[in-house]
Amino acid sequence: MKTETLNLHGLNLNEAREKTRQNIDWAIKHGVDVLVLNHGKGHHSSGGFGVIKADIRKMLKENTFLRDSGYRVVYGESNLAIALRYDEGNTLIVARGLESEYIGGQAQNEKNQRIFSEEGKQDRKAHKTWRKNNSR
Fold first, then answer.
1. Which member of 95, 104, 105, 123 has the greatest number of CB atoms within 10 A?
2. Where does the pLDDT of residue 70 fall: very low under 50, low under 70, confident under 90, or very high at 90 and above?
3. Same-domain status, 90 and 136
4. What's the confidence (pLDDT) of residue 46?
5. Total domains present in the chain
6. Rounded to 5 degrees, what are φ and ψ at 92?
């Protein structure tokens, strides 16, 4: 899976928009499967509100070129497999059909599949219940 990352930290809003547009065009032309936009959570913004995050996500939502080119926007905090390594400080632009793929090598993929399988979910739930009952 061809993955690229764009770090938008330290840029002003106009610079972040322009860099994002340029990198989307480049990624689509070069067949990138996943473009990770690292815009941060907004902790360093005045008021703690992620101005770049909100603006970039709005821009992506309105961008029909992405959809027409076969890409989908996935927020880092989503539960889709492709986003498991990320958080709300990231937005991913993903080639359609790859949303359920895990990012990482074979060992990481096997680990993720075990963890997020139905059996893995049941094991985590049982462990959580055990910890809750035995912490008293």
1. 95
2. very high
3. no
4. 60
5. 2
6. -110, 140
Q: Tokens representing 66?
A: 């992405």
99/112 same-domain check: no
Structural domain that includes position 112: 104-136
Amino acid at 79: N
Rounded Cα gap, residues 104 and 110, in angstroms: 10
pLDDT, residue 23, reads 96
**Joined tokens for residue 36:** 């990770």
CB 56 within 8 A of CB 68: no
Residues 79 and 136 in one domain: no
Q: pLDDT value at position 5?
A: 94
Q: Which of 39, 47, 42, 50 is nearest to 16 (CA)?
A: 39
* Separation CA 109–CA 49 (nearest Å): 34
Bridging pattern class, strands 34-38 and 3-7: parallel
* 84, amino acid identity: L
Interval 82-128: pLDDT, tens: 887 888 889 999 999 998 887 766 666 677 677 777 887 788 788 88
